[in-house]
Task: structure prediction
Amino acid sequence: MSDGQIVVSGLTKRYKNLLAVDGLSFTVQPGRVTGFLGPNGAGKTTTLRMLLNLVTPTAGTATIGGRRYADLADPMRTVGAVLEASSAHRGRTGRNHLRVLCAAAGLPTHRADDVLELVGLTPAAKRKFKGYSLGMRQRLGIAAAMLGDPRVLMLDEPANGLDPEGIRWMRGFLQSLAQQGRTVLVSSHLLSEMELLADDVVIIAAGKLIRQGPVGEVLASMTTTAHVRVRTPQVDALTAALSGLPGAGVTARPDGTLLVTGVEAPAIGKAALAGGVELHELTPERPDLEGVFLELTAGKAGIR
Amino acid sequence: MRLVKAEVVKLLTTNTWWLFALGAFVTWMATFALNATVAHFTMGASTPEGASAEDAANLAVVGDQIYQAANLYTSGQLFGLLFVVLLGIVMVTSEFYHQTVTSTFLTTPHRTAVISAKLIVAGFAGLLFWVVTTGLNIPATMIFLQAENLPTHLGDADVLRAILLNGLAYVLWGIFGVGIGVLIRSQVAATVTAVLAYLLGTALIGVLFTLLAGWLDQDWIEKIQYGLPSVASSLMVAGRNLPNQPDYWVGAVVLIVWAVVTGTIGTLITRKRDIS
Result:
């Protein structure tokens, strides 16, 4: 019962002349925030919607805790999903929107007030949805997802439309949910955000899996070439000293530092010492997720 | 049962229901006034002429009275049914329009159950519209008929039949509305189609089929119009059978078939449809 593992296996969705998701397989573990990454149009939303029985897969399966969404005895108490921000009747108050869902799921009405409190929307509870800002709409979506206190959370681009304060709130909120042992799957095309938020990443492009694993491992596996930032008053002397090292490349940066590629930091230090070059800084640069992501998905992102 | 409750909450938490109820009330007042005026001038205008034909003439007057009484007791039907069918349509199309269908189907992955709940609630809403309209019609008609020094005819079998079948029409049009809504998901398209088919359908198509039947000299063509829901429902609630028209129950059957067919096809489509 406590197992909230998401398993996607050979999942495929073909529209008339578009293969939106192409034999996609990955797993998502409980107790961790998993970032579901890919450029726009990569098939993230379609995949989430297939997990939630909103879209019928052409082939393959998607299960939550070993069951298809449609077979869950009590979906609202098992899975909470936030798909798009603008999914409430414009003329209905936020609280009544949640009460409708409570009624349909057989949850007590007071859950509506509980979750409004949880997302900090209590002051706007009796206001109509059309008067909500985008950030408030996102919060209402999260409130709806939390109604059944589910052990699995799925969010599609939750950072969209949020101000920096809202994004910070969301990050803390999702991380605390994962710490409680829940499964949290968050899709995004914003990688900088995922780097701060996610424990694991699943990267897809053009409907296919590119890479999955813990953020650190995915980054490490992509360190194909070393990047070292070097600061020195003797640029020419260093360039000359490094020219003896095979594979080394030196690029001047606008901020006055040099980017040395192809050789590790100790080798650069050794060459500088031998050449009598004064160094003020020697820092190995860890490639960020953004760079890795662009490298991984390059050429696959295009308009489809 | 949960889903029925959810649909009721949905209906009561937006302005649609009372706006439509208000619309039905205003149009009821207008049509009752019109019906009463017509009844005032048609009833009692015909006086028996020949003593030999006295009995027949009396029967004709009573018949006319019953027809008028049934018409008065079912006042407001034309627009009342329109508001009921629109309510049924909006119950479905607003879910797509406001994208609430996503959270609805997330809460309940069994889509057939969701549509079934909508059919039940729409039918029940139709029944309520009928209860209120009839609650207004009965005292109003009784007062009017007594003012005209005429019997109320409320206990008359034909009048009772008309009143009860009017209730059936309200229920069936509510269900039919949900059926139209699932078939035509676009709020605007579904509404416009229903209004045109309902209002123009009744008047224009009746004329069209009659002309066509006369022109081609084929009587059966004229009968096709009774297959249309709006013509069928007015046939169903007529106080008495008019010559050259099918019996009232044919109208009831036609309407039930429409409600069942649209509801079933719509549900089957919705079960398979991707929500994105």
In short: The mean pLDDT of chain A is 87. Chain A has two domains: 6-218, 227-285. The longest helix of chain A spans residues 164-179. Residues 128 and 252 of chain A are 56 Å apart (CA to CA).
